[in-house]
Amino acid sequence: MGTGTKVLAVTAGVAGVVGAATMVSGHTVAAATGTVSYRAGATTVWASPAFKQAKRYLTFNQSVNVLGSKTVNGSVWYQIGSNEWVPSVYLKVGQAATSTPTPAKPTPAKPAPSQPVQQAPTTSGQIKLQVSYQGGAVTVWKTTAFSGTTGQYLTHGQTVTAVSKTVVNGATWYRLSSGGYVPAQYLKAAGQTTAPSQPAKPAPSQPAKPAPSQPNNNEVAQAPGVANPTAVAAVINLARQQIGKPYAWGGKGPTSFDCSGLMSYVFQNAVGKAIGGWTVPQESSGVRVSISALKPGDLVFWGNAGNTYHVALYVGGGQMIDAPRPGYNVQLTAISPYWAPSFGVRVL
């Protein structure tokens, strides 16, 4: 966590807790229907009430059968199937999910304008595709600008049909027959036997330099070199395992984190890489990259170099994992254009 004033406003988090010593009590409940109330992203179904093994994902307003419940360290979990558990804060039992107000986002005087979108002609025709990304759920977006999710999430190996393909700022997107868009690097042709476990390098033909809301010296050219895909996958996978754990000021894990503590923990424990314990030394843990050149596994910083106040892990597809602020939990969320990061650092 940086030393400056930390006013962090991010998309909605959810409650959860993991204690140093596990205290468990269990009881059954009458058969009931639960409805997913979390709307900021996919809700993970865990193999046990311990955030240790993800089994599948649920989406906002999806209905499930609640078979029982268990209290772990004061946090209630619902059992929705054989070895399938969801924290109670993600479900509304016995009623449909309502539209819950999300925490207010900062309102800048004027959002920074983006570079004009350069779009190539769209090709059409049905294309059978399969999800190749193995790091978690793949978000289906409403537009080709990572603005707004459709509520659909795809999982590794799932087959989908695309009705068109378009290139925007050098990045290829598929429009699905079910609606929404997915970046091509998360998909492969159905039946293709060889595909990387991590998304392919986007390689835009002309990286667009985002216009910062205020002048700064943080933007730099794309860093040379190719990231180690195995190490990147290990870091991202370990970060995903921390989703739902509570924020704690100065927390370094494994049960709670602040933003820089989370980054230090996942790099040290996934690949044995020491990057420093707070944001400013973490700025020097790799090669500086511009936001337009981010790749999965890069650190993302907010604030001017030497005085940053927040850091997150970029996981691809316009998404990041971070420990946002007190009262919230480690989360997977989209990078918001209204609270845009300042620069990235490629560690691996």
TrEMBL record:
- Keyword vocabulary terms for this entry: Hydrolase, Protease, Signal, Thiol protease
Task: Output compositional bias ranges, type Pro residues.
Answer: 103-114, 199-213
Q: Which InterPro entries match?
A: NLP_P60_dom, Papain-like_cys_pep_sf, PG_Endopeptidase_C40
Query: What biological-process GO terms show up in the record?
Result: proteolysis
Region (Disordered) spans which residues? Answer: 98-123, 192-223
Q: Which GO terms describe its molecular function?
A: cysteine-type peptidase activity
User: Which PROSITE patterns did the record assign?
Assistant: NLPC_P60
UniProt key word Membrane = no
Renumbered to this chain, the signal peptide range is 1-20
| Record-stated family | Belongs to the peptidase C40 family.
The identity of this protein, by name, is: Cell wall-associated glycoside hydrolase (NLP P60 protein)
